[in-house]
C-alpha cells in the first residue's frame, strides 16, 4: 500500500465520520417503533432502551396523534421504516389523556457514551493500529486487508449511530460494514495462510458469498433510494441479519474444518486462536441480537453493545501478524470451559430466587440478567484462581508447604538411585510434614502371609488386623487412598502379584485428623513413590536382560524396539531444534536482507553480491527444511504409509535420476500401527539412500501388498547386487544390519537375494500386524 492510498483512505473515513457525527448531534435517537392498527391509528409497539422516548416517559401501547404538527402517516421515518426519528414534537394519547413531548436535540447520558464516546474511541484505535501496520508491516500482503478491516470498524460505529436516526447514507454504510467484516476476515486468512503454504478455502464458496452479499447491498440501496413503504424495511433487515449470520457461520465452518484437519499438526494453536477470536467477536451479536431479532422480533442486548464485541477480531489479527510466539491457548480454553460449568448452578439459583421474590419482571429481562450474572461468575472464578496462584504463599502457607515438599521430593528422586535411601527419605518426609508420632513402611508377602518392616518405626498397633485386612482385600485396595483402621491409617504405595508395599501412619502429635489437602498430598507423593519403584524395577530387569544378551548373537525385539524408539525421539528433538532455532534465524536473516535490497539502492556489483548471498540463504533454508523432513517425516500419521512413501519418492526423483516404480495394492484397505508405519518408512528411506549412493542403480521397483495378517514389501533394483553381507553396494555390513534390525524390531522377517542374472538386488520384507490392526481384504 502506497502512502497516498493510505492517506486517501484515512481522509475519506474521517470525512464520513464527521458527517455522521453532525447527524448524531443534530437529532436525538428517539427509539419508537409504531404499527398502524385496523382503525388507522398508529400504536407504539416498541420503545428502544436508552432512547429519548424512554427518558421522556413515552410508553408502549400509546397512540401517536401528531408528529411535528403533522399526522403520523405523513412523517417520513414512519412511512419508510415504521419508526419515529428526527422529530421535535410528539403528541400521544394514553388511556384517554393527551400528552405532548418535546424532544430536545441534546445528548442523553447513554446515547452520549454509545454514539459519541465509543465511536470516537474505536476510530482512534483503528487509526493507531492502521498507522502501526502501515509503518512496520506495509510490505506484507495482509496489511491492506487488515487496514481496511480496521477502517471498516472505525466507520461502522459512527454509521450505526446515524443509522439509528434513519439517515439513508449511514444506513447503507452500516449495512455494508456489517456484511463486509466476515468477508474481509476470509480474505485476510487466505493471504495470511499463504506463507504457511496452506489452502483451505474453496474459491467457489468465497465467490458465492461475494455475489450474495452484493445482491443484498443492491436491494438495500434500492430501498433507501426509492420511496418503498415500510413493509420492505422489516424484510430487508431480516435479509441483512440472515446474510450476516450466514457469512459468520461460513467463517466458523471454514476455520473449524481447517482446525480438524490440522488439530494434531504444528498449526493447531494458530487455528484455535483464530476460532476463539471469531467466537468471542460474533457470538454475542448472533446469539443476543441477530437471532432474537430474527425469531422473536426483540433483542436481548442492543446492536451497539453487541457490535462492540466484534472489535476483538481485528485485535486478534494484529496479535497474529505482530507476534512470533503464540499463547498456550489450550490452557485458557480448558479453564474457561471449567469456569463455565461451575457458573451454571449459582447463576440459575440467583435467577430462581429472584423470580420467587419479584413477580413483575418480564421473562426477557430475566434472560438478560442470567447472561450478565453468568458472565460475572465466570469472571469471578477466573480472578479467584489468579489470586489463589499469586497469593497462595501467604494465604495458604500450609498447603504451599505441602506443594513445596512434593517439588523437593521429585527433585530428590531424579538424582537418587538407591532404593533404601529413597524409602528412608519418603518415610522421614511424611513424618516431618504431617507431624506424626509413628510411621512405618511395610512389605506384605501374600504367599507366606507375613508383614516385614522395610523402613520407619516399630510400635504397638493392630498389626494382626492390618495383616488380615491386606489378606482379605488383596488387589482390591485403591492405590494411594487413605484407609482408616482403628488407631492407625494406611495406604497402598506399590503392588504386584505377590507383594504389597504399604505405608502405615500413626496418630498426629496434635491429635487432629487428616484434612483434604493432606490426604491429596499423601496420594500424590505415594504416586511418585510408586513410579520410582516401577522405574527401579525396570532398571533391574533391564540390567538383567542386557547381561543375558551378552551371551547371545541377536538382541530380542523389545530391546531393538526400545533402541529405535530412543533414536526416533532424538531425531524428533533434533528436527524440532533445527526448525525452531537455526531455520527461524536463517528466515529472519533472509527477510531482513530482502527488505534491505528493496529499501535501498545499491550499485550493480554490490547488489549482485547481495543477491548471491540472498540466494545462498534461500538454499540453506531449503536444505535445513529437507533435513528436518528427513529426520522427522511430516504428516506421516495423517497421510499413512502409501502417501508418505509417494512423497519420499518424489523428493528422491527431484535430486537424482532414479526411475522409481511404486505400486501399492489397491484391493485392500489397511490399518497399520504408527510403529510399523515408521519402521517401513525408515527401511525404504535407507533403501533409497543405498540405491542413490552405493549400488549404482538406475531403476527401482517397490511393491506393497498384504496377505491376511501380514504386510509385505518387495524391493528390486538393477544395481550391483550383493556378495554376502559385506557387499560394498550396501555401504558395508552396517546398511544390511540396520535394515534387518529395524524389521526385527517389529517382529518381521527380511530376505536378501541377488536377481538371477546377478544384475540387481531383491529384498522381501514380511511384517505381522497387531490383532487390533488387521488388514481387511476387499473382494
Structure description:
With 779 residues, the chain is an alpha+beta fold. It folds into six domains: 75 residues, Pdz3 Domain (Roll); 215 residues, Rhopdopsin 7-helix transmembrane proteins (Up-down Bundle); 68 residues, no CATH class; 127 residues, 2-Layer Sandwich (Beta-Lactamase), CATH 3.30.450; 72 residues; 141 residues, Histidine kinase-like ATPase, C-terminal domain (Heat Shock Protein 90, 2-Layer Sandwich), CATH 3.30.565. The protein is built from 22 helices and 18 strands. The strands form four sheets. Strands 4-1-2-3-5-6 form a six-stranded antiparallel β-sheet.
| Broad structural category | alpha+beta
CATH architecture assignment name of the largest domain: Up-down Bundle
The biggest sheet amounts to: 6 strands, antiparallel
Q: How does the overall form come out from the CA principal axes? A: extended
The total strand number stands at 18
| CATH hierarchy class name of the largest domain | Mainly Alpha
* Strand order in the largest sheet: 4-1-2-3-5-6
Total separate domains: 6
Task: Give the oligomeric state of the chains in this entry, treating copies of one chain as homo and distinct chains as hetero.
Answer: single chain
Average pLDDT score: 80
Helix content range of the residues, please?
Answer: 55-70%
Distance between the termini: 60 Å
CATH topology of the largest domain, which one?
Rhopdopsin 7-helix transmembrane proteins
- Beta-strand proportion: 5-15%
Could you list the spans in which at least 5 consecutive residues all have pLDDT below 50? 725-734, 772-779
**Discrete helix count:** 22
Amino acid at each position: 500500500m502506497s502512502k497516498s492510498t493510505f492517506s486517501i483512505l484515512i481522509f475519506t473515513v474521517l470525512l464520513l465520520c464527521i458527517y455522521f457525527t453532525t447527524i448524531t448531534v443534530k437529532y436525538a435517537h428517539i427509539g419508537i417503533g409504531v404499527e398502524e392498527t385496523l382503525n388507522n391509528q398508529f400504536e407504539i409497539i416498541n420503545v428502544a432502551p436508552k432512547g429519548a422516548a424512554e427518558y421522556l416517559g413515552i410508553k408502549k401501547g400509546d397512540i401517536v396523534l401528531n408528529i411535528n404538527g403533522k399526522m403520523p402517516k405523513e412523517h417520513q421515518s414512519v412511512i419508510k421504516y415504521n419508526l419515529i426519528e428526527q422529530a421535535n414534537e410528539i403528541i400521544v394519547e394514553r388511556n384517554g389523556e393527551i400528552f405532548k413531548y418535546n424532544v430536545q436535540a441534546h445528548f442523553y447520558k447513554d446515547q452520549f457514551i454509545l454514539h459519541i464516546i465509543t465511536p470516537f474511541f474505536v476510530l482512534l484505535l483503528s487509526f493507531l493500529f492502521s498507522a502501526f501496520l502501515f509503518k512496520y508491516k506495509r510490505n506484507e500482503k495482509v496489511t491492506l486487508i487488515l487496514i481496511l478491516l480496521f477502517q471498516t470498524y472505525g466507520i461502522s460505529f459512527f454509521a450505526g449511530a446515524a443509522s439509528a436516526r434513519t439517515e439513508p447514507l449511514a444506513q447503507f454504510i452500516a449495512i455494508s460494514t456489517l456484511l463486509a467484516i466476515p468477508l474481509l476476515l476470509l480474505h485476510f486468512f487466505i493471504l495470511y495462510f499463504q506463507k504457511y503454504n496452506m489452502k483451505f478455502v474453496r474459491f467457489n464458496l468465497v465467490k458465492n458469498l461475494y455475489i450474495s452479499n452484493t445482491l443484498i447491498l443492491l436491494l438495500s440501496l434500492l430501498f433507501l433510494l426509492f420511496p418503498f413503504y415500510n413493509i420492505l424495511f422489516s424484510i430487508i433487515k431480516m435479509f441483512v441479519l440472515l446474510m450476516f449470520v450466514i457469512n459468520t457461520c461460513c467463517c466458523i465452518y471454514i476455520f473449524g474444518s481447517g482446525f480438524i484437519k490440522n488439530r494434531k499438526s504444528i498449526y493447531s494453536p494458530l487455528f484455535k486462536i483464530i476460532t476463539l477470536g471469531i467466537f468471542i467477536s460474533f457470538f454475542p451479536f448472533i446469539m443476543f441480537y441477530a437471532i432474537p431479532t430474527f425469531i422473536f422480533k426483540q433483542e436481548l442486548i442492543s446492536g451497539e453493545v453487541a457490535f462492540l464485541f466484534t472489535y476483538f477480531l481485528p485485535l486478534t489479527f494484529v496479535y497474529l501478524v505482530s507476534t512470533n510466539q503464540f499463547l498456550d491457548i489450550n490452557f485458557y480454553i480448558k479453564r474457561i470451559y471449567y469456569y463455565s460449568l461451575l457458573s451454571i448452578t449459582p447463576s440459575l439459583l440467583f435467577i430462581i430466587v429472584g423470580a420467587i421474590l419479584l413477580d413483575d419482571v418480564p421473562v426477557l429481562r430475566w434472560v438478560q440478567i442470567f447472561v450478565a450474572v453468568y458472565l460475572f461468575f465466570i469472571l469471578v472464578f477466573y480472578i479467584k484462581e489468579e489470586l489463589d496462584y499469586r497469593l497462595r504463599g501467604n494465604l495458604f502457607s500450609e498447603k504451599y508447604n505441602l506443594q513445596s515438599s512434593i517439588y523437593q521430593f521429585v527433585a530428590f528422586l531424579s538424582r537418587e538411585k538407591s532404593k533404601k535411601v529413597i524409602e528412608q527419605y519418603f518415610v522421614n518426609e511424611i513424618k516431618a510434614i504431617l507431624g506424626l508420632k509413628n510411621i512405618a513402611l511395610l512389605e506384605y508377602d501374600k504367599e507366606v502371609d507375613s508383614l516385614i518392616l522395610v523402613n520407619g518405626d516399630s510400635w504397638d498397633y493392630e498389626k494382626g488386623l492390618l495383616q488380615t485386612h491386606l489378606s482379605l482385600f488383596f488387589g482390591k485396595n485403591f492405590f494411594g487412598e487413605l484407609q482408616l483402621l482403628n488407631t492407625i491409617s494406611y495406604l497402598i504405595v506399590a503392588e504386584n502379584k505377590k507383594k504389597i508395599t504399604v505405608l502405615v501412619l500413626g496418630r498426629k502429635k496434635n491429635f487432629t485428623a487428616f484434612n483434604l489437602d493432606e490426604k491429596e498430598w499423601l496420594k500424590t507423593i505415594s504416586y511418585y513413590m510408586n513410579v520410582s519403584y516401577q522405574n527401579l524395577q525396570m532398571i533391574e530387569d533391564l540390567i538383567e536382560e542386557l547381561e543375558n544378551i551378552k551371551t547371545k548373537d541377536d538382541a530380542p525385539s523389545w530391546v531393538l524396539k526400545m533402541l529405535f524408539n530412543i533414536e526416533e525421539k532424538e531425531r524428533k528433538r533434533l528436527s524440532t531444534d533445527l526448525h525452531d532455532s537455526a531455520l527461524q534465524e536463517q528466515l529472519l536473516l533472509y527477510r531482513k536482507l530482502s527488505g534491505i535490497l528493496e529499501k535501498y539502492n545499491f550499485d550493480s556489483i554490490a547488489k549482485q553480491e547481495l543477491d548471491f548471498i540472498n540466494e545462498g540463504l534461500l538454499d540453506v533454508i531449503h536444505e535445513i527444511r529437507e533435513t528436518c523432513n528427513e529426520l522427522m517425516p511430516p504428516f506421516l500419521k495423517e497421510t499413512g504409509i502409501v502417501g508418505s512413501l509417494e512423497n519420499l519418492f518424489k523428493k528422491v526423483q527431484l535430486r537424482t535420476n532414479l526411475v522409481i516404480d511404486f505400486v501399492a495394492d489397491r484391493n485392500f484397505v489397511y490399518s497399520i500401527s504408527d510403529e510399523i508405519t515408521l519402521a517401513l518408512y525408515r527401511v525404504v528411506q535407507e533403501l533409497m539412500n543405498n540405491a542413490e549412493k552405493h549400488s549404482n542403480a538406475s531403476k527401482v521397483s517397490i511393491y506393497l501388498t498384504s496377505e491376511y495378517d501380514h504386510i509385505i514389501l518387495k524391493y528390486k533394483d538393477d544395481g550391483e547386487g550383493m556378495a554376502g553381507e559385506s557387499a560394498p553396494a550396501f555401504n558395508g555390513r552396517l546398511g544390511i544390519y540396520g535394515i534387518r534390525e529395524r524389521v526385527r524390531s517389529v517382529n518381521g522377517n527380511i530376505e536378501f537375494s541377488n536377481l538371477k542374472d546377478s544384475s540387481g538386488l531383491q529384498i522381501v520384507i514380511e511384517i505381522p500386524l497387531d490383532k487390533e490392526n488387521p488388514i481387511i481384504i476387499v473382494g
